[in-house]
Amino acid sequence: MRWIPASVILPPPSSPYLAMAPGVPGYPTGARRRSWLATSGGIVAIAGAAVITVGCSLPYVHYTGDSSTGPADTSVFNGGFNGAWGDIAEPVMVIVFTLAAAIAIISWTNRVARALAAGALVTIGTQTLMMFVGYDAAGAAYGQLQAGAALGPVGAVVLLAGGILAAASLLCRDPGGGSAGG
C-alpha cells in the first residue's frame, strides 16, 4: 500500500473550486459581478424588440377609401403595394441591432461596451418611436388606426426604457470593484 499525503486528495484552501463566491477568501479580485440595472435594461430591451415585432406584424391602419389597388389593412411588414418591401429593412435592422446590443449589455461586464450598447438602445428606441409616429400620422389621414399603431410606439418606449436602465447602470458604483475600463 502506498502512502498519499492528505493535501493531494483534498483540494488546498486556496483552490478555485472553494473560492467561487465573492467574500470567500481566495475569490479572484479581478472578477466582476454583473450590474442588475444593466441586466434588467437588457431584458427590458429584448421585451421591447418583441413588442416592436408584433407591432410591425399587425395592421397599423385600415384604409377607409378605395382599396381596390391593395389590401385595406396594411402593416409595416405587409405594406400592401409592390414597392412596400423596401420599408421592411428598417424595422428588421432595429430588431436585430436591439437584440445584439441587449445581449452585449447582459453578457459583458466591460463598462465601455455597456456604455456603447446602452447608447445604441437609447438611440434606436428614440428613432423607432419617431418611425411609428410617422406611420401613425400618415395612416391617420387616410383611415382608422389599428392595433399596430399602438403596439409599435409602446414597444419603442419599452426599448427606450431598457436603454435608459442600462445607461443608469453606468452611473452606479461598479459592483465588481474593478477598474472602469476593465
Detail the topology: elements first, then pairings.
Elements: H1 6-9, H2 36-57, E1 61-63, E2 73-74, H3 89-107, H4 111-140, E3 143-145, H5 147-168
Antiparallel strand pairs: 1-2, 1-3
Helix pairs in contact: 2-3, 2-5, 3-4, 4-5
Regions with little confidence, pLDDT below 50 for 5+ residues: 177-182
Cα end-to-end separation: 51 Å
How much strand content do the residues show?
A: under 5%
Mean pLDDT: 80
Characterize the largest beta sheet: strand count, sense, and whether it forms a barrel.
3 strands, antiparallel
The structural class is mainly alpha
Morphology: elongated
**How many individual helices?**
5
Radius of gyration: 25 Å
Order of helices and strands: HHEEHHEH
Which strand order does the major sheet show? Answer: 2-1-3
Domain count: the total is 1
The total strand number stands at: 3
Helix content: 40-55%
Could you characterize the architecture of this molecule?
The protein is mainly α. The protein has one domain. It has five helices and three strands. The protein has a three-stranded antiparallel sheet with strand order 2-1-3. Helix 2 (36-57) runs antiparallel to helix 5 and helix 3 (89-107) runs antiparallel to helix 4. The longest helix has 30 residues, at 111-140. The radius of gyration is 25 Å and the shape is elongated. The termini are far apart. Mean pLDDT is 80; it is low at 177-182.
